Amino acid sequence: MTPAAPEISRAPRWLHLLLSDYFSLILTVLLVAIFAPFTPGLLSRANLLNIFSYLLPLLIVAIGLTLVMITGGIDLSVTAIVAVASVVGGSLMTAGHQPAFIGVATMLLVGLLIGAANGAMITALHLPAFIVTLASMMFVSGFAVWFTQSRNIDQLPPAFLQIGQTLLISTAVTATLALVVRFLLQKTVYGRWLYATGQNPVTARVSGVPVRSMTFAAYVASGFCAALASVIMTGRLETASPVLGREMLLDVIGATVIGGISLFGGKGKIAWTFFGVPFLVALDNVLNLLNLSQFAITITKGSGILLAATLDALRTRFGFRQS
Amino acid sequence: MSAPFVEFVGIEKAFFGVPILRGISFDLPAGGALGLVGENGAGKSTLMNIFGGNLAPDRGHMRLAGREYTPATPRDAERNGVAFIHQELNLFPNLSIGENLFLTRFPSQRGTSLIDYSRLNELTVKLLEEVGLAALPGQSVETLSTGERQLVEIAKALSTDARVIIFDEPTTSLSRSETERLFALIARLRPRGIAFIYISHTLADVFQLCQQIVVLRDGAVVGDGPAHSFTESKLISLMVGREINRLFPERNPTSRLAEPLLQVRGLSCCGKLQDISLTIHRGEIVGLAGLMGAGRSELARSIFGLDPRTSGEVILNDRRLKPLNPRAAIRNGAAFLTENRGSEGLCLQLSVADNLSLACLPRHSRPVLKRLNFETLRAAVERIRAVVRVDSKASNEQPVRTLSGGNQQKIVLGKWLLNEPRVLLLDEPTRGIDVGAKSEIYRLILDLAAKGNGILLISSEIEELIGLCDRILVLSRGRIVREFARDQFHREEILRAALGSAAPA
Fold this sequence. Notes:
The complex is a heterodimer.
Chain A: H1 5-10, H2 13-19, H3 23-35, H4 45-70, H5 78-93, H6 100-124, H7 129-148, H8 158-165, H9 167-187, H10 189-199, H11 201-206, H12 211-237, H13 249-259, H14 270-289, H15 294-321
Helix pairs in contact in A: 3-14, 4-9, 4-12, 4-13, 4-14, 5-6, 5-7, 5-12, 6-7, 6-12, 8-12, 9-10, 10-12, 13-14, 13-15, 14-15
Chain B: E1 4-15, E2 18-29, E3 33-37, H1 44-51, E4 59-64, E5 67-69, H2 74-79, E6 82-85, H3 97-101, H4 117-131, H5 146-159, E7 164-168, H6 176-189, E8 195-199, H7 203-209, E9 212-217, E10 220-226, H8 232-240, E11 260-269, E12 273-281, E13 285-289, H9 296-303, E14 311-316, E15 319-320, H10 326-331, E16 334-337, H11 341-345, H12 352-357, E17 365-366, E18 371-372, H13 374-388, H14 405-417, E19 423-427, H15 435-450, E20 454-458, H16 462-468, E21 471-476, E22 479-485, H17 491-500
Parallel strand pairs in B: 3-8, 3-9, 6-7, 7-8, 13-20, 13-21, 16-19, 19-20
Antiparallel strand pairs in B: 1-2, 1-4, 4-5, 9-10, 11-12, 11-14, 14-15, 17-18, 21-22
Helix pairs in contact in B: 4-5, 8-17, 13-14
């Protein structure tokens, strides 16, 4: 996964930087440093808090997606899961009069189940992940709208809102998740198996790696992460909405790619995702503060993602050429 | 006979200093049919690769219709009227017959780049008539049988005005009637002056079809003459007549302990294997000989649980495997070095250390959460690198795809040895690696057997089997047709057994 260390030291300095885990973090810092003088609001407390609270759920979803992408798959259903978990939990805690912890548990269960359904269809029926999760995105988000008759649900219990609104709690949840996943990926057999599955599923299977179970588990984890993000987002907005997170999908995929997670599988670290997401969020925020039109913002973000993909290709080429 | 149409004069070729072709000379006349026979590795395919413009000879030259012929690329060869019909046909199954025939030069409508389909159909119909294939031009190739697809290939060759057509093992997947039809077509085309070079292990077919036979052995022509001057047994002894190479260390047959490590009973698999039973004992190396397509790899895959079986059972270390899958096989002490090391043996972009440790990870983990024990894992990787002698210049972090074939193969072997297997299934363990690495792998195989492991060795080189094995089983059309004990090893007999039932009675 990481290129040979002695080889890098021989490479030019800019290449060194390009190959570094911190590449997108450096980009983010540069971006903020360059634009801070032109956008007075950028470093204001209110703006930073705003960025941060959008960042957390995005990070959580991206962590789940990273696991799927390491297996060489994709999960397009994550934002639909955010929405459906939101409204199922919301209605249970309002119309169903259930306490917050039942609501949260149900939301997470919904995520796990949808992830399991995705994983089962992909591993047992050998359907392409793109199609399965696209179909499940449409199905699930359609269900969310039908379930609520397109209405938002408010009057959620205060204990539930706490999770999303207390920055300390939501930060702790995100950090814990990231550390747990990082531990699993780097320190356990499961992590090695996941990378091998993405690198070459045939070799992995011949070598005794439970390829199907690993793939299945990645989608279950992705569903769980999406539902967890839904808990935080729903709490922060004080409303369960059937269209929650709708505009988030491309940001999540874009952010992981910017971080350097390969769409071809077998490569990627939680750190990369962790640094890729802030870059995209910061870029979005800067462009907003510059009062650009929504079109211009979308175009710029698109270019940013394309550039990141190009960098990834370069990185791969140089990374593997050393011998 | 008439003047030579195709001439090979003193063709030599070496790879990495190892001579593969040592001065090949022969010729054939226009309209002739020449059978080219020889064991695997005799140099047939290298010679044909030179003829087809894939390789350049080190020395020697070729002439075609009296003119010097030096193809630089396969396209060059095609322009000169040389057509190849490979065992794996080069057709696009999803396209129609007509589209396949004219893929590189569609007839277009006047002044546009739109395909003129009515003209395409006309031309296709004519070609199909010539080869005697009753099919519609618009029919997609996937609806055709293998034999019919071969006819399409021949039609393609005719459409490019081929003057020489080379067949590589054309009949292995054909039924008898399809074979007859193919031979009739060839007989029809010869009077037009088209010359045929026919490469096959099925000697009966060669005798039926060819007037002239050339026998290759170790890159040299050891027989060349009219077909009627040969008999089948003379051909076989020409093909094999050679002392066993010194490459193999002395094999001391292990004391025959009747302790079975692997037992296979009545294994059948999807039409490719029929009722296979075999036993491998402690310390025994059992060879599996057979022609391409005889089912050797399928047998190993089936034992290891990679392919589904339709019936039969596999008993490893006294335990019956059920269900049969790679994980269960590995847990019970099996290891499988597959034929395709790049696509099934390695993760090419992962590092040397990651690849070596891939199969043994659970052994180096702690029970809770399967945390890796990096210390023991690193030590194990270092130890095994020394055992299989991976090039010491290669770092543990280096991606394996940057290593030579021999080092890659050692890594695959090392990966399995880290699991301390009892039974190793080795499918062509020395394919495509240099002589030095080969002899190191032989040494490893013998060491493993000496330590009491059981080994199933699949190889296309009979010599390798004779040099290493205690017993050789011959597989033909999915059945074990003969078994040889070490004191009965006889190259001709083994080859005859493998060929024997390849030609239907």
